[in-house]
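INTERNAL AUDIT FORM
Audit reference: QA-55
Scope: verify that the stored structure record matches its stored sequence.
Auditor: D.O.
Record contents follow.
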Amino acid sequence: MEKEIIAMILAGGEGSRLAPLTKKLAKPAVPFGGRYRIIDFTLSNCCNSGIEIVGVLTQYEPHILNQHIGTGTPWDLNRLNGGVTILHPHTKKYGGGWYKGTANAIYKNIEYIDKYDPENVLILSGDHIYKMNYGKMLKFHKDTEADVTIGVISVSIDEASRFGIMSIDDSKNIFEFEEKPKNPKSNLASMGIYIFKKDILKKALMEDDKEENSSNDFGKNIIPKLLKEGKKIKAYEFKGYWKDVGTIESLWEAHMDLLKTTNELDIHDQDWKIYTRQESYPPQYIGKKATIKNSFIDEGCEIEGIIENSIIFPGVKVGKNVVIKNSVIMKNAIIENGVIVNKAIVGEDVKLTEDVLGDKEIEVVVNYGEYRGE
């Protein structure tokens, strides 16, 4: 079962900064873009890049995420040999209990990696929005004979302290790496995408597990240690759209980005499709007095009001004299007659009978009773 590369997707995050959307939902399973879930982008990247073996490491509130992924059919990962495998925390040879960090999560599933004995292991996050050809990154990794290759992207210096920040030379060698520094020395940020030579990864994980004071984290522990050991660590610079949707504001911004005329993500790109598990809905209905401007309206919607610069998920019902602007309305929500919604995220199955008016803060309505203080 030898393979050139397999992928491991870290999808167990609690996503506390996305509360209340993640109260009963893993962060990678949060709905996005009208019909998708966040993890669809990483899974679709694997599919489009020709990666046929994918392990998805889950932990926090995994039920909806597991159901969504299923046997991997939408991403062509329903295979007898390989395909997609959901990897839960377990009690086995390599330590039991919950995953303690990103590195520990991979370490506890090292037997899964050994089963396929790949030359390289691609480690990904399940909660970023982007389109990327991992095959090009693998070619760079092999051509440069790197021990580790890290996907990097330029961010604003104001944002840099949120990420792992690195310094590189003219040959793309990383010579310094700091995890979320208070005073960043550059604006080159880690995307949380790593390609490791398998043997180097396994050795590093086993040594890290023996360190009592380790956080068992790639950014905090594994990468800095390998740098000290003089391993050849390269930076693969990514130039496309990439968004860490770890906060309510960034999730809302990513939705608004989809509606821009200069939209870099382009989910309509037929050469790099984003796949998802789709439910069956009837055609959308647009009423005689409805007005829709610069918006996504998905299947099964019934629209009687005004919608501007918004994304409307499947099955949403919008009543008469309703005005929705700069908002995200998730699946099967009902917005009753006369309601005004501005700069808001309305969760699945919510029934709104009162106005939701965001200003500087983005209004989030997941449970209508809670929203009204009941």
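Auditor finding: record pair retrieved intact. The mean pLDDT is 92.
Action required: none
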